[in-house]
């Protein structure tokens, strides 16, 4: 008598892997191997890459819409959308714009900063086994709808001897500010403030402005406004009081 222990492996016509185990036995001849279970091969084939990417830009809503053609794959789980301001687009959590769970829609709405910058979008198809395939990056340029930072360090003072007043502010530290304009408010900041159209914009390098004190006023309500090349403005209010 001999003791036998067998592990048999083989492939079935269906593509499944057959594992058989007969245990141990004492017999004059080897025991018959009996099938126990079959294991399907691991799916490592990614779905087709998304194609037909298109974008539309809505400046009023500050919205970018990304659309693409449907991917045909029986095990498709859905899509992921990534965005970067450089290419190639890194497919990592920091650049993921959609949810981490793949979704089935063929469009995605994004709201990047509308600063005039160019962004790159990539759509990734994901199957139920986690295999992925990425589209080619698609560039979209936004329209600048973001004003520069409002001026800081704004002060105002009156010189009663000279009959003038001076507004001062800090030099800009951002690259977007192209220059400055002064807005005039009639009797307080709750009233509309306006910029005199004929007044030229002050250059970026200028950090103060001296003007004649208007006759009959004891208090001036004004705004110092930073302006970019698209005429977008951000303002800081300042009150100038005449000496008693």
TrEMBL record:
<dbReference type="InterPro" id="IPR036116">
    <property type="entry name" value="FN3_sf"/>
</dbReference>
<protein>
    <submittedName>
        <fullName>Fibronectin type III domain-containing protein</fullName>
    </submittedName>
</protein>
<feature type="signal peptide">
    <location>
        <begin position="1"/>
        <end position="27"/>
    </location>
</feature>
<keyword id="KW-0732">Signal</keyword>
<dbReference type="InterPro" id="IPR013783">
    <property type="entry name" value="Ig-like_fold"/>
</dbReference>
